[in-house]
Amino acid sequence: MVPLTVYLPGGILLFWISREISHRWSLRRKAKAFGCESITNYPHLDPIGGLDLSVQIWREFHRGELSEGMRRRHEKFGPTFSTNSLGQDCIYTIDPENIRAVTTDNFDCYGKSAWVEEAAKHVGNGILMSDGENWKRSRAVLKPLFARTALDEPTLVEPHLQDLVQVIRGNNGQPFDFQVLAARFTLDIVTDFLFGKSTQSLLGGKAAEDARHFLGLVKDFEPPSGTFIAVGALAWLELLPSYRRLLHVVDGMKAFFRSQLDMIISDPGLHSQSAAPSCFRMMESDGVGVGQIQAELQNIFFASFDTTTALLANIIGILSQRQDIQQQLRAEISYLNGNPPTKQDLGGLSFLRFVLLEALRLYSPVVSHSRQATRDTTLPRGGGSDGLGQIFVAAGATIVWSTYALNRSQRYYGQTWAEFKPERWKTLQPTSNRFFMPFGSGPRSCMGQQMAQTEISYMIVRILQEFPVIASQDLRPFKEAKAVSFYNTYDTDANTGVYAEQAEDPN
Fold this sequence. Notes:
The protein is an alpha+beta fold. Helices cover about 55% and strands about 10% of the residues. It has helices at about 5-35, 50-65, 65-75, 95-105, 115-125, 130-150, 155-170, 180-195, 205-230, 235-240, 245-265, 280-285, 290-320, 325-335, 345, 350-360, 405, 410-415, 450-465, and strands at about 80-85, 90-95, 110, 370-375, 375-385, 390-395, 400, 470, 500. Helix 7 (about 155-170) runs antiparallel to helix 8 and helix 9 (about 205-230) crosses helix 11 (about 245-265). The model has no long low-confidence stretch (mean pLDDT about 85).
């Protein structure tokens, strides 16, 4: 008698093949009913589970080529193509019309991707991780807070900027790891905004030690989070052996937030350095429960801290290697005579604006997005031989769009797409074109985008005012870090990092 184990593998394979054939036939039938055309399919070596592409993406993530791998595939297979992601339908697109269909026109047809459910268990079910009615409630609570806050006023940033300058001066012209300083600087501002009291991680003392320990936990959390976002369920093969340690990291981050909340709850007189009350106080006055406040604050933190830190580090990295751009910026801000800029001053610095836009184009901290279809629907482009026909999207399919690849499209940025050229924005209009979306688009676009731009612009001006030379000894090309946000892994090398020379004392 032949053992069952002889037939079992073949039976499983036959089941999956028949299931895949039935699924594909159903898709073609529905696509025809919707009046859609065929889409380009990725040439899988494993057409049943798509394991070949998942493994390739996994390798690209660990080689620091995740975003570049996406760009190369779009260059080869076109703006929109379909793949099999571990047995699930996945459509990659960098067509602006498709992106806006997902984020705006057909917003109600899509929800957050599958990985978000797992992340919400650890980060909290706030505005970043929630969907549907929960998301609408979170947005209704938070949108007025962002409108009322004074975080976009430079007066809140200046005390933390002074701390940053003090630390840089303490290096006496020696190289330092700006990624670390950017993280501390951003943490101090964000905690001031959220809790009404800064962690002062740039300075010393017990509070700074706790804050730096927290930043260490965040750093440990980044690679596994990035892996999970990149390859989904396949990440468990890598993460499972260290899952207990990962939970310990998550528990440590939650404990930090809880300690901050306990501190301000116990001190009703505690207020932010700015004129506006903290996020906590505003939510508290609106009657939001402490548990939900913690979830929302954790969501706001992870939505703002890592992205702002990455963009700050990326821009300083660029300026440290582009003395020509530095000089143009210094000439533009020279009329300030070293005085801190006002919000009105920042609005009038056109070249600074161009530099920020170009940094958001080539080094945006968020390089891809995804949504999952909650019902059968369509996308306007990607079908037929010319790619201009409508395509079918089945319920459960994931749509992924790479802003990294879109922002490097020759179609929109010409032959110089790979060059850092701020002057290109003299003719490009970021608010009127349909292909530049650094802060997302539609109802889920970033609520804090104006705050982030003001903070970063202010920091650039003040750093240039305080230090006549900002340079780098590291000439290695940019390499994507193994993290959630997009930043240079080499920026974390203090031995070859950025250095700044301070002005001589005229006395």
